[in-house]
């Protein structure tokens, strides 16, 4: 049985998080490294976070969707955006509006979304589901049993949220839109 130390476990945890396609939870690390003490795993995560906060690092370890992932520090995103095409991750104004209604009102029916937006949203909902930002989360106990829509863990990852409770308040939305525009999340002209 391997005797883990902070120095020997840190590169293994970094490699697991780096190679993962989504946020890595502490429980996932425990499953992958059953002989590593839980407290040591937590200590390694704190150490990596602290080391990534140093000025000379271009990445940071962030907590999103109840897990951890590496991402580019925000001060370097404009250079990364120049070198990496993000097509396919852009949202139109209709998609953004629909996603906002779902995020803040979830679970919500299509009729409730359309009442707020004032237009048919079925195509936009399908688009958001295809992008894995929205999912069907059940049915409402009304005649016809309409579908209920909620956001996904992928939504939390994309918008860098630990949980849905971390959604910004209305007064914080302008800053969030500016950040999203800066990293190229919206189509040109989508938000004015």
CATH superfamily of the largest domain: Winged helix-like DNA-binding domain superfamily/Winged helix DNA-binding domain
Q: Overall pLDDT, averaged?
A: 84
Structural class: alpha+beta
Sheet with the most strands: spatial strand order: 3-5-4
Number of helical runs? Answer: 9
Count of structural domains? 2
Return the string of H and E elements.
HHHEEHHEHHEEHH
The amount of beta strand, in percent, is 5-15%
How far apart the termini lie comes to 59 Å
Task: Give an overview in words.
This protein is an alpha+beta fold and 192 residues long. The protein folds into two domains: 6-83, Winged helix-like DNA-binding domain superfamily/Winged helix DNA-binding domain (Arc Repressor Mutant, subunit A, Orthogonal Bundle), CATH 1.10.10; 93-182, Arc Repressor Mutant, subunit A (Orthogonal Bundle). The protein is 46% helix and 13% strand. A hairpin with a 7-residue loop joins strand 4 (134-139) and strand 5 (147-151). The longest helix has 15 residues, at 38-52.
Give the topology:
Elements: H1 6-19, H2 26-32, H3 38-52, E1 59-64, E2 67-72, H4 77-83, H5 93-105, E3 108-109, H6 110-117, H7 122-130, E4 134-139, E5 147-151, H8 153-158, H9 173-182
Antiparallel strand pairs: 1-2, 3-5, 4-5
Helix pairs in contact: 1-3, 5-7
A few lines on this structure:
By secondary structure, this protein is an alpha+beta fold. The protein is built from 9 helices and 5 strands.
């Amino acid at each position: 049985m391997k005797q883990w130390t902070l120095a020997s476990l840190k590169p293994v945890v970094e490699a697991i998080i780096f190679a993962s396609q989504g946020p890595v939870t502490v429980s996932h690390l425990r499953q992958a490294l059953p002989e590593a003490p839980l407290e040591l795993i937590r200590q390694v995560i704190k150490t990596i976070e602290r080391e990534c906060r140093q000025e000379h690092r271009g990445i940071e370890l962030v907590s999103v969707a109840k897990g951890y992932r590496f991402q580019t520090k925000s001060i370097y995103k404009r250079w990364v955006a120049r070198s990496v095409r993000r097509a396919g991750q852009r949202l139109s104004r209709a998609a953004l509006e629909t996603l906002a209604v779902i995020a803040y009102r979830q679970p919500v029916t299509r009729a409730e979304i359309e009442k707020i937006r004032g237009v048919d949203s079925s195509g936009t909902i399908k688009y958001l589901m295809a992008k894995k930002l929205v999912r069907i989360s059940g049915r409402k106990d009304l005649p016809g049993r309409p579908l209920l829509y909620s956001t996904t863990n992928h939504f939390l990852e994309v918008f860098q949220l630990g949980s849905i409770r971390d959604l910004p308040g209305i007064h914080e939305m302008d800053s969030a839109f500016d950040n999203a525009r800066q990293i190229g999340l919206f189509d040109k002209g989508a938000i004015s």
